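Below is just one:
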Amino acid sequence: MDSEIQIKENKMGTMHLPPLLFSISIPIVISMLVQALYNIVDSIYVAQYNNIEGTGALTIAFPVQNLMIALSVGLAVGTNALLSRSLGQKNFDKADLVAGQGFFLNLCGYLIFLFLGIFVTKSYVISQTGSEGLLFQYSVDYISIICICSIGVFVQVVCERLLQATGKSMLSMLVQGSGAIINIVLDPILIFGWFGLPEMGVAGAAIATVIGQCVAAAIGIFLNVKFNKDIRIKLKNLIPRKDVIVEMLAIGIPSVLMQAVGSIMTFCMNIILISFSNEALNVFGVYFKLQSFVFMPVFGLNNGIIPIISYNYGAGYKDRVKHAVRLGIITATAYMLLGLLVFQLFPNVLLGFFNASEYMVEIGNTALRIISTSFIFAGVAVISSAVCQALGKSIYSLIVSVGRQLVVLIPVAFLLSLAGNLKLVWVAFPIAEVVSFTLSVFFLVRSIEKAFGKHHREVN
């Protein structure tokens, strides 16, 4: 291993933590802000095309998109953590093997969604909308396209994580940012039929999304092959290896399940809210678009801290792990409080971006203010989840996620909905987040104690 590679690899264990964390995280945060922005732009254009049915279709599609991202990111989390740990242990051959196995697992993930897009889409939409009307047709069109053409998102995500795990966050930002920008440019062209192209409506938004993902995937492959010298992508490493796959899945599957729980939660909330009105359903969809703009930077911090903690855990540096945890929690909490302030002061402005009707603004104003109080506790939960994953205790993150969204949020929301007062349904969100915060702190302390209970090396 030449000296240049050694220096790059060693910075995870030697560089001062604040600049290290921010040098890795800030490019990811910027790219995720762009990602959140293009999701919002997508919804804004669709709302202008057809406000009620178009926005409703994207809300119904959200659990499917969330599940897709859950699987791709969850599998990539296993790749990221095991790759960083292997580099920390100076096991470079295993790092190369992990990279290849990461591609194999994400290609398997694509095959699952290809099947769902062809055979399951209509049944899923009927379960929420019935089998007739514009809402049904828009939902089927959008979901079918994003599933059948999801190869782009699976390859893109694994390429991003390989770059992040080796400290090349600027290149990772380039991968994600390129797909987002392409989507933003193509959205109005394909939705409204500009420049002589046919008007595609909601289907055009889906096509713009998958084109952006596929281009980003191609760029990600090129950057890893050309510039990521810390690992070598070899075709022979794409052949499945049971021992490595099991190790990766042990880290990644709890993350997949943890994020997939969000799809189940959204599906159930859609059913609860549509019993009130289509506008209530759309407010929920708009909230998720807006909250992604708040949460994605924190998830960027989450992604930045995982390879740092994984590396220093592999090297046995307890003090650096604990320092990184404190820094991550303080930063995430500060950002979430900023998000809370925006939601409390400007809910009407936020809703106005989505061409909201007068009634939608009325109920949405209250919804955004109530739900956003949960932001106070969310930063700690997100960083705690990352720490548990990096230390090989992903099951703790899964327990917290299931507890918050399925054991608490959905039952509480359903019971409060029986009163016939929509405002009460939104209160379920901060209640669930308090439970999440309590469990997260407990499991965070437990994970660190288990990881370094016997011995560690002191590092300044």
In short: Residues 1-9, 454-460 have pLDDT under 50 and may be disordered. The first helix runs from residue 3 to 14. The chain is about 85% helix and 0% strand.
